[in-house]
Amino acid sequence: MQSFIESARQYDGFQEVVFIGIMFLSILFLRFALIYIFRKRAKGTVSQRKQIRYTVDWIVFYTIIIFIILYYGETGWMTRPLLTIGEIEITILLLIISFFIISFAHHLSKFTTQLFMPKIYERYQLDTGVQFTFNRVFHYIIMVIAIIVSISTVGIDLSAFTVFASVLGVGIGFGLQGLTANFVAGIILLFERPIKVGDRIIVDQIIGDVEQINMRATVIRSVNNEHIIVPNSYFLEEHVVNRSYQDPMMRLITPIGVSYGSDPELVRRLLLQVAHDEAAATDTVLLDPEPVVHFVAFGDSSLDFELFLWVSEARDLIKVKTNLNFRIYHILKEHQIEIPFPQRDLHLRSVDPTIYSQFEVKKK
Question: Quick one: which of 178, 186, 226, 333 could link to 222 by a disulfide (CB 3.0–4.6 Å)?
Answer without folding.
Answer: 226
